[in-house]
Amino acid sequence: xxxxxxxxxxxxxxxxxxxxxxxxxxxxxxxxxxxxxxxxxxxxxxxxxxxxxxxxxxxxxxxxxxxxxxxxxxxxxxxxxxxxxxxxxxxxxxxxxxxxxxxxxxxxxxxxxxxx
Amino acid sequence: xxxxxxxxxxxxxxxxxxxxxxxxxxxxxxxxxxxxxxxxxxxxxxxxxxxxxxxxxxxxxxxxxxxxxxxxxxxxxxxxxxxxxxxxxxxxxxxxxxxxxxxxxxxxxxx
Lengths: 116, 111
Description:
The complex is a heterodimer.
Chain A: E1 5-7, E2 10-13, E3 19-24, E4 31-37, E5 44-50, E6 53-57, E7 64-68, E8 74-78, E9 87-94, E10 106-107, E11 111-115
Parallel strand pairs in A: 2-11
Antiparallel strand pairs in A: 1-3, 3-8, 4-5, 4-9, 5-6, 7-8, 9-10, 9-11
Chain B: E1 4-5, E2 10-14, E3 19-25, E4 32-38, E5 45-51, E6 56-59, E7 62-67, E8 72-77, E9 86-93, E10 99-101, E11 105-110
Parallel strand pairs in B: 2-11
Antiparallel strand pairs in B: 1-3, 3-8, 4-5, 4-9, 6-7, 7-8, 9-10, 9-11
């Protein structure tokens, strides 16, 4: 049973560029959440996708956008990269339940983004 | 405003002894609490969780206790092993599923 997978593992970009990160959820999961973890900090919630729609969003600017596909995989896009966007980007998947009941989120290995 | 707090940045324990990691929260609407273990440059690994309607959940060497009146939860690891050395994050969830993490506690288990 494959867990959450993310690609690429590492990425180096320059300021002003755009980046796309990809995530495939754990088998059977339909909800994908994205988090940003800066060095030495805790993960911060970016947004969550369920049924191909953004269900909830954290305190991140519009430069951060996402998408969920019919097979539940997801992309995170970041435009106009800043030095401060350098971080580990984590994808987590879970099983969305009717009524919005909380479920355990399982994390992928992350994508390490370095902005120069 | 830090809604989930882990006030101990680090903890050192002797192998075979108990490790107790603590976490405090401020939002009484949190309905689900989780503990994750994390190594540098890797994703968090789920350890154990507890619903707000329970006060204890046990899984092998790991036990989580929830004290809702004190808005406090703790993770007990017994017996501690050197392989348990990592950063431990507690996280709290609202009904919508957004996780809010504490700052983490680095556990070091010495042989």
